[in-house]
Amino acid sequence: MQAVFLMLLTVGFSLAIICQGYPLLSKLLWGASVLGVLVILGVQASLLDIWINKPLRLIQEFADGLANGEFAGLELPSSPEGSGGELAALTRSLGRMAQTLGTLLERVGGSAHAVSAAAEQLHSTAIRIAGCAESCALQVATVATASEEMSATSQSIAENCQQAAANSEDANLTACEGTELVLQSLAGMDQVGESVRGAAATLDQLGNNSEQIGAILGTIEDIADQTNLLALNAAIEAARAGDQGRGFAVVADEVRALADRTTQATREIGGMIAAIQNGTRQAMTVMEKGVQEIEHGSELSLQSGKALEEVLMKVSELGGQVDQIATMAGEQSATTCEINGSIHRITEMVQQTVRGATETTDAAQELLRTAQELREFAARFHQ
């Protein structure tokens, strides 16, 4: 095209120069040459738009579609006939790039799905591990508490056994003293029996005296009733006398009040005397039973003396057994302390496991968020 343009331009100018002697013809040739040049330039501009600008616009639209992730319905532009080899090479390169990018995004999407599924499974597993670890920590803490309590109990048992051994020796001495006291109590019971019999006789006399006091109180109550009746009659007579008998009426009221108080006091004393008589009878019954119990107690004291001798033998045997138990309890306490230390170490390990599971859960959650973002990114380029 450029060669034809130069040839026509050269011919036109040459003819114009040759025909300078003919002004009209020279102008026509000059005009034809300029017109031909303009026509050729227009044709060349049209061909330039068809061969270069249009393919470049299509390539630009294709590249913009790739940049925006619009893969769906995106077609690679074809190179028009007559376009340069560079545009065709550029078009083919863009096609290969689009194909490679699509394949890469498909792989990224598949990997994102796989990573998301793995992250969800890891998150669920980490949560279960954390739950199991926390449950295990609670169980270990419970066992540790029970172990500490058992250790304290074993130590307390050992101390109590040692104290029991000492008490056993004291009991042996006490049993020996008890035997002597039983013998002394036998003599004391005989004396108590005589004293109780004397007290019973005294109570019998007290009962008789109480009956006499009751008879006297009955007489006093009768007198008080009669006095009350006389005071009532005097009050009636004073009321009949009017103002002159008013002072006498006051005295009659006071006498009647004293008679009432005397009657009430007499009844209270009578109740007390009755209670004393009842208590005396009960005391007599109790004392009679007491005498019987004392006699029975004397027999039991004799049996107690024999039982104390047997107790002395049993206490001696018990002392040896308590010593053995104290030794075993001490060994158990030491073993329990070792177990307690091991449980504390296990507790620390379980706590570390809980912290690790928590960190794993957080990491899985972060991985899940990253995988979700990657899936969204890959899905955006497949729309």
Automatic annotation (TrEMBL):
Q: What is one Pfam family matched by this protein?
A: MCPsignal
* Keyword set, alphabetical order: Membrane, Transducer, Transmembrane, Transmembrane helix
- Which positions fall inside the Methyl-accepting transducer domain? 111-347
Q: Phosphoprotein among the record's keywords?
A: no
Q: Which residues cross the membrane?
A: 29-52
Q: What start and end residues bound the annotated signal peptide?
A: none
Any one Gene Ontology biological process term? chemotaxis
Enumerate the InterPro entries for this protein: Chemotax_Me-accpt_rcpt, HAMP_dom, MCPsignal_dom
Q: What does UniProt give as GO cellular component?
A: membrane
| Compartment(s) | Membrane
State whether keyword Secreted applies. no
Q: Which residues form the HAMP domain?
A: 50-106
* Entry's Gene Ontology molecular function annotations: transmembrane signaling receptor activity
PANTHER family with a match to the protein in the record: LYSOZYME-LIKE PROTEIN-RELATED, METHYL-ACCEPTING CHEMOTAXIS PROTEIN MCPB
Similarity comment: family membership: Belongs to the methyl-accepting chemotaxis (MCP) protein family.
Descriptive protein name:
Methyl-accepting chemotaxis protein
Q: What species is given as this protein's source?
A: Geomonas limicola
